[in-house]
Amino acid sequence: MAWEPHVNGLARVPVSHWNEAFEEAAKYISKRLYSEEDFEETDERAKRSKLGDEEHLDEEPVISEAVLREFNDSYQRIPIPLDSSSAPQSDCEQEDTEETEEEVAKGQDFLVQDSPEEARFSIEQKFLLEMPSDFFDLWECCSNINKEKPEEALLKAGLTLVGPYDVMTGKLKKIKERKVSHYVCHWRYYYDPPEFMTVIAGDKDEFHIGYYRDDPFHMPCFVASMSSVKQGQIKPLGENIFAGVCSYLTQRMKEENPFKKAPLLRLYKEIESFAKKKDYSLLAVTKNMKKRNKKVVAKTFHGAGIVVPVENDVGYRELPETYGNLKKMLQKVVDSKNEDEQIKNFDAIQEIITNVQFAFDEGDSGTGIELGLNLFTFGGEVFHKPLMHLLSVGYDLLERDPFIDILQR
Questions:
Q1: Which of 201, 255, 346, 388 is least surrounded, with the fewest CB atoms within 10 Å of its CB?
Q2: Burial of 382 per CB tally in 10 Å (0-12, 13-18, 19+)
Q3: Which residue of the set 270, 362, 381, 399 is catalytic?
Q4: pLDDT for residue 171
Q5: Nearest residue to 272 via CA among 260, 262, 263, 282
Q6: Residue 30 in contact with residue 97, Cβ under 8 Å?
Q7: What is its main location (predicted)?
Q8: Active site includes 362?
């Protein structure tokens, strides 16, 4: 059976092949953690997992064999259908049945095994994404500010460390059913696309700060904020979490009176000082962010844009409608007075989806991701099924499987 080693995707391997899968995954993880030369010899998917964090590779701690073994064991998941009424298949049935596009979109949930002691491994096990060095460094910084409750170190600014930080606080131990769906949806807001991961929550307007990444096997491209003030809009704040927090504090200080501004300024200086010691840029826009902007093939409704591989003009083609016209068409569907009118108004959208299907067939997977994310950001339950199909197929073609798992949840 031909398959590629991919830790987060092990559950897609038939049960009868799990032992083989885990052995291969162990070799893959060992290469990824210990040897840069070996790492370069792995397949293209494995190569991508460390891109974007090269500046901090030398800072990674040495991982013991015992910890690595624990990490491998923790990824053994028990698959369960999302539809609890459907009976599980036998090993033979799983081997003989090929995965259709509908099955990819429907997906499975998974029971997570015991947590690894290493926080970075425990987070990746539950949230399906690897966290960058600045994520853990902010925790250290907040621990210096508030030793008892680091997650509340930024409360004076109305911010709380959440999401994957709750692995560090121990709050996630209270979850009774250890399903992947419970973890990947933890502190995920309604309009957060799979590419966005919330790590800090504000105290009003559903304001939250998180990491945005184009590929689940890359480190994040930048840190951004979202809120209900501009529903579904993603606003880049900087390349790392320190830049994101400092950008927020700078804006907050402009809005506060002198009495409330003083404690915010002290907090800003503490974070700024720590960031400088760790050599983190606090610029709102960096060279890497500008470089990434040049690779964006479509802006999308949320504004952050998408980056997909394009070679010899294959990988992306423009949608046949402008964003202005597309929004009018979508609004018309949402405003339909009855089902018959909704079906009639959806015909124009269906025509675009058909064009996107042709794009999929010809290798332009980015077009489907663009339309899928636009439907996601626009909102409306009527678009859930088509966007699930578009994004699941698009992510699958680009081998961005963790995004499919997050989307399904």
A1: 255
A2: middle
A3: 362
A4: 80
A5: 282
A6: no
A7: nucleus
A8: yes
